[in-house]
Each structure stands twice: as structure tokens, then as C-alpha cells.
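hi support,

uploading two proteins for the ticket. first:
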Amino acid sequence: MMTMPLFLIFILLHITLVASSDLRPGFYSNTCPQAELIVRDVMKKALIREPRSVASVMRFQFHDCFVNGCDASMLLDDTPTMLGEKLALSNINSLRSFEVIDEIKEALEKACPGVVSCADIIIMAARDAVALTGGPNWEVRLGRLDSLTANQEDSNNIMPSPRANASYLIDLFQKFNLSVKDLVALSGSHSIGQARCFSIMFRLYNQSGTGKPDPAFEPKYREELNKLCPLDVDQNVTGNLDSTPLLFDNQYFKDLVAGRGFLNSDQTLSLSPRQGV
């Protein structure tokens, strides 16, 4: 049986391949043969400098590809005539470490000016984030083009909230021909990294408007989170998404089964009768 971290790789590949049949391994072998080595080198330095940053970069792939395809539109800043996706509801105060992509782009431009797209950088960097934190390595297909526009409205309408429940997520993914198993596997990207107290305050103190905590919390874990995120906390304080936040492994799924899921959108997957996995 395929393990969830390995199955996640197939889901990431699926999301990145559906938009184009022209992608191929070794796309830059002639025009920028060191491209993948350059990306990995910058990612290694980012991991040493701030381990959380590689988890943040890994999530760029989903936030980019799920909204109108893998085109790096999420990297574009606002202009007088365009609202970028950085300030979309699911991205603002959530996506971070854009500077890592900037560093990769700068290094690639020195080696091969005007060759490697930012869309491909996101794909390579996401793969490296997994590989550098203990997960599997895999060959990426490249050849994407960068978008010249972004669409904040589409991002707002498409990207799920960390507060979403299982039924909403399942229905959303089905619209993109992704199964429940795909959804559960993709959620395994939360094997590494952190999230803000902002995302769980309602779970701790007012789940579903009851004025009570989410009963799905394992009691001792809830006590830990109450200390991390009291009612008067700066809601930008962060907590680990699983108990091994620097290691890409299966612990995330074990924590969900034990009632130790940080985000509602994660914990709800282990409780839904619609799991089918």
C-alpha cells in the first residue's frame, strides 16, 4: 500500500500536470542545465536560516496551482489596475517567505538570464522542501509560462479556509476532479510547518457558535493550545501543525487520529463519514 507522504507526491504531480501536456523532465537541460541544482542550493540555505520557510514555500504550489493553474500569478504585487493574489483571504497574513523565491530567481538570473519561469521555480522549490525535510524526492516536469495578471477575486472564491469543514472541502475538490483520497493526501503537506492562533481561536473557544471548544480536541492537547493561544493572545503567534514540524513524515496523520490536529480543516477530515479512504 502506498504511504500518504508518497501518495502526496502523486497528487502534487497531478495538480501540476493537468494544465499542460507539454511539460517534460529536463526542460532546461540545454538552456539552463544547473537550474534544479541552483534551486536546491538556495532552498538548503533557507532551511538552515529558518526551517519554517521551506514549509511556507512548499505551500506556494497549492495556492498557485489551485487558482487558474500553475502560472506564478500569486507572486504578482498589486498594481493600479490589478489586485494581486497575495492579499486574497486565504493568503494574507498566511503565505510567507516570498523572499526565498526572490533569492532563487536572482540566482537563476545570474546563471541563465530570462530562461527559467517563476512558475517552474515554485514547482521545483516545493519538491525540494519535501526532499530536504526527510520526504521523498521526485522528478519534476517543467516548461510552464508565467502569468502577467493575477485574480484576487478568483483566489477568494476558490481557495478554502483553514476553518472549512470536511464536506465543504470534499465538494470543492470534486469540482477539480480530485477525490477524497487526493484531498486527504494533499493535506499531508501540513506534516511540516506552523499556523497562526488566528486559525484556531474559534475551535478553542466558540466551535460552531456554542461558546465551547471543539470536542474533537484531545484534552491534553487542548490544554497546550489554550496556553499557546489564550483569548488575549496576539493571534499571529504560531503553533506546530503536527508534533514533528521539521520532519516530513506520517506523524501528521497519526496526530489527527489522536485528536491532535491543529487546523479545523485538518481535524475534520479524520471525523467525516465521507472520507472513503
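and the second one:
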Amino acid sequence: VMGATGSGKSTFINKASGSNLVVGHGLESCTSEVQTSRPFVVSGRVVTLIDTPGFDDTNRSDTAILNMIAAYLSTTYEHGAKLAGVIYMHRISDLRMGGTSKRNFRIFRELCGERSLKNVIIVTNMWLQVTREIGEAREAELARMDKFFKPVLEKGGQLLRHHGTLESAHTILRYLINNQPAPLRIQQEIVDEHRSIEETAAGAKLRRALNEQADQHKDEIRGLRADM
């Protein structure tokens, strides 16, 4: 389960599995490492969910987060475990999908790779915080625009809603449990192709994003000095 800090990853996992992962309610990130739920059963299948920290963590850099996630995924892949699917959480209550959110989703896409996007479910939550009309309008925009979720949906990914209940969580998981498990791109790059994290598609995407951010900050500083 992936997504931005505060997008409800740990809450979703606790609801679905009956686990007690720490949930954040303040401004600080709570999920600081990769952790797993207790195993539970959905429609006769044993399920374990993996909770990951968001790339916009308040305590660790995006590079450190990517290293942490990649290390966990590559270790499990080396031991023969493959993921039946990946859930990406997004708050429908967000007024807009800003630059950080778009960057994080692009890194997520590179981490998964084109071939495993069919096993991705984008889950929108926090529907009670918006009116139905506003939520549906945002959902439609996210689904139809190339800079948001459209590229994943075109590759077979799905866009579903979580309404905060156990049944809603298990309904989402039923879309995944019978999937043909597939390795993520970053697992193949690190384990099969022996690449460093910096050489993976996700690592390269993150590096370019950070360089662009640094250049933007330099331009802003030059602009401030010119105005002084």
C-alpha cells in the first residue's frame, strides 16, 4: 500500500486486517519504516498488506524512503515472494493534486513499471469530507487527465473508492487476490539486472525531480535578490 503521507494507508490496512499499525493524526509522519499487517482472510485467501512510508515524509528524505522501499521489495523478491497487487491511496478531499503529489505518483509508476500496472488499484478515500458532487467531479478529472491517473487506468489499473468500512476495504482487496502475481520493475532492476537504486527507473525519475526542484529554488533566490 503506497501513497502520500497522511493519505490513509495505515488506517486502510488496520481496517482491512484488524492490525494496530500506528496512525498519524498530527502534522508529523508516523510510518517511518516498511511494516506488514497481520495475515487475514478475504474470500478464502490469506492476505498480508505492506505499509510503506510516503515520499513526502516529514522525517526522512525522498531518497531515503525510496531506498527503504526498494530494499524491502528486493529482499522479498529474492526470497520468491511476488505481490498480487499494489494499492495507491489518494485523498479525494485534496483540493488539487499539487506538484509534490504528481511527482510522487510519477515515481510510483516508474517503481511499478508498465507491465505490472494492470495489478494496480488507485483507491480514493475520505469521501465524507467532501460533497458527493465535488468528490465525483474530482474523481472524473483524475481519471481523464494524462498528468494524473489516466496512464495507469489505460494499462489496466483500476480506480476504486474506500468508504472507511471493513466491507469496503475487503471489496477492494477482492479485485487483487486472484491476480497473477507479477514482479515490480524496481524488483527486477535490482535483483535480476543488478542495478543500483540510482540506476533504476524510479531512482532516475526521483533524481531528475530533485534536480528540477533545486534549479527552481535557485531561480527563486535569484529573483528575490534582484527585487531587494
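thanks. also noticed: The longest helix spans residues 201-227.
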